[in-house]
Structure formats: C-alpha cells, structure tokens
Amino acid sequence: IIALISLYRPGPMGSGMLDEFVQRKHQRKKIHYDHPLLEDILKETYGVIVYQEQVMQIAQVLAGFSASQADVLRQAMGKKIPEEIKLQKVAFIESAKRNKIDRKTAEKIFSLIENFGSYGFNKSHAAAYALIAYRTAYLKANYTIEYLCALLTSEIGRSAVIKEEESKLVNYIRELKE
Question: What single string gives the DSSP state of each residue in 133-167?
C-alpha cells in the first residue's frame, strides 16, 4: 500500500515507473540494478526508485555524500532548481568515480535519480497515507452503513466553492446508492 501511494501519482504514472514496478513485482520483467550497490537500497521496490529516502541512500552509498549533501540533492530535485541539480550532478559523478564507479554508470544512475526527482515522494508520508487508506477501506468494508453515514455527516453544510466542481456530498450519495 505504501509503494502504491507513492506510485499512483501523475509523475510515476506518466513516466512508466508504476508499470515498471508492477511488471517487476509480478515477475513479468526481470529486476535489474545498474550497479550491485543499488540492490540493498532498491530491493524492496523491485529495483525501482520509489521514495526520496532511496535517492538519499544512493547518493550516500554510491557517491559518498554525507547525509546533509544527500538532502541538498533531494531538495534540489524536489524543488526543481536546475542550477543546483547541475552542480549536484557534477559532484555525484565525480564522487562516484572516486568510489570506482565508471562515469557511464554514474551518469545513468544520476539520470534515474533526476527523472525520479520530478515526482518523488517521502516514504514516511506515504506510510501515513497508507495507514489512513487501510483503515478507511476496513471501515468501509466492515462497517459500510456507519462509514457512509459518517462520511455524509462530515460534508453536511459544506457546498462546492467552485461552481464547476460537484459537491463531495453528491459524489458520496452516488457512492451510497451504488
């Protein structure tokens, strides 16, 4: 659930990362690591970068970045600061070379990180959302009437602020009928 919370977003879906994750999870596609050091970091996500923390770990393990340097990289990616990303790329590739990782491999891994950076999600946030999703699904499945009554009650008195937007209450009533 945690991985899906991170992957079911416009960036990962648009970039093909969601499909890649699913294909690898169900063994329809071979799991591939561009460098052996990536296996420990990406094993739980089938070789796909899913979380911001993984980017930071990659920077620390492959390029020897400190935790604060890795966080600067994460922030530059998340805030899409091109100048800082260029600086981080140079530092990453040079540091990776010092760790006996060839330039081509370092560039490819940084490219994966850069692609991920445009949509990356923090695992702890995803975990919190996943817990809410799990509990919500449990309540809806096991206490359907009570759940839907609470949902309707939470929307009473609110109206759609934007005229083109349909009221949540209308959607919930439709869901109730179904």
Answer: HHHHHHHHHHSHHHHHHHHHHHHTT---SSTTSPP
